[in-house]
Amino acid sequence: MKDRSLEQFISELASGKPVPGGGGASALAASQGAALGAMAANITAKKTSDMQAHHLMSQKAERLTENSKLFLELIQRDADAFGLLMSVYKLPKDIKAEKIDNALIQAALPPMEVMRLCRSTLEIIGEIYLDIDMAVLSDIGCAAQLVNSACECAALNVLINARLIKTENSLIEDAADIKKKCKKMSRVIIEYTEDKLCG
After folding, report:
1. What is the three-state SS of 6-19?
2. pLDDT tens, 5-26?
3. Distances (CA, A) of 149 to 23, 25, 57, 59, 120
4. Contacts within 8 Å (CB) and 24+ apart, 90-97
5. Are 182 and 114 in contact (CB under 8 A)?
6. pTM for this prediction
7. What pLDDT, in 10s, does the model give residues 82-122?
8. Is residue 144 part of a domain?
9. Containing structural domain, residue 85
10. d(CA 176, CA 111)
11. What domain count does the chain have?
12. Calculated CA dihedral for residues 106, 111, 112, 116, nearest 10 degrees
């Protein structure tokens, strides 16, 4: 699914099919946020005359680029997990009862991984936003906003599956914890960006 053009993906997203859905959309938004953060870091690296700063920004840009690619891979993983869940729902009642919890857990794992990767991405952005070149400061703020929004969307996709799981698990608590941390990190970055741009 990640190899589709953006136009194809958006067209499928708007169709009457359940896949791609919120999970894939949140992963795509997060991928764009990570890529935007990488762009800001790369531009800052090119503009600085400080070799140590150049090296640091280049390293962070590479990590953000890698995260962006990982988010795209999660689009397909989310679609595959949803397909498995739908196939289990179609099974006879007695067989479905045996398999449904595991299928729900598997469906919750890709958006949970999106959330974890959002946290990692915001941590990287948090290490560089103070040193980002003024010309791309708005971009680093947008990157943080996109990634946090993607995290919140992914949390909803964890919840819609986790709430139905009967066996003991910590998915809902883990999602809430990551969501809280991402919101806090992004707020600091966005408020700094707004203050600098308005000052």
Report:
1. HHHHHHHHHCCCCC
2. 888 888 888 988 888 899 999 9
3. 12, 11, 24, 25, 14
4. none
5. no
6. 0.94
7. 999 999 999 998 899 889 999 999 999 999 999 999 999 99
8. yes
9. 21-198
10. 13
11. 1
12. 140
